[in-house]
Amino acid sequence: MISKEVFMDIIALHRNGCSVRKIARRLGIHRKTVKRHLESETFPRYRKQKRRPSILEPYYPMIRDFLAEDDYQATWIFDRIKKTGYAGGYDTVKHYVRKIKEQKRRLAYIWFETEPGRQAQFDWGDFQVLEPSGRTSTVFAFPRKH
Questions:
Q1: Do residues 34 and 63 both lie within one domain?
Q2: Which residue from 2, 90, 106, 130 could staple onto 6, CB 3.0 to 4.6 Å apart?
């Protein structure tokens, strides 16, 4: 597929007397491509082809159910759906599982406020402390925000 600019360059170079080979060399495309576009003299229209349904599509609900239960790995899911008749490959399953897991990670939570004294929220923090003896230990504390 060539851009409109390349198509216009082909036409302009041809009008200036350049040969098909010279145009192809200058633009870095195959000479048959140059010849085909010179013969048509109209900008090529590209049509999207209809996509075939995925071989995995009948198993989408099952995979979503597995991932709703637990954070299963794609290999585990692949083994389970293979037993139910899935004839495709592991990579197809892996890509779909990755897509679903990324969507789950992107979930946003709504911030809400409560009346004063009704609820308290805090985060524990863990800190590495170097003791005088040289030993490092972990201390869990409630960090204070400034």
A1: no
A2: 2
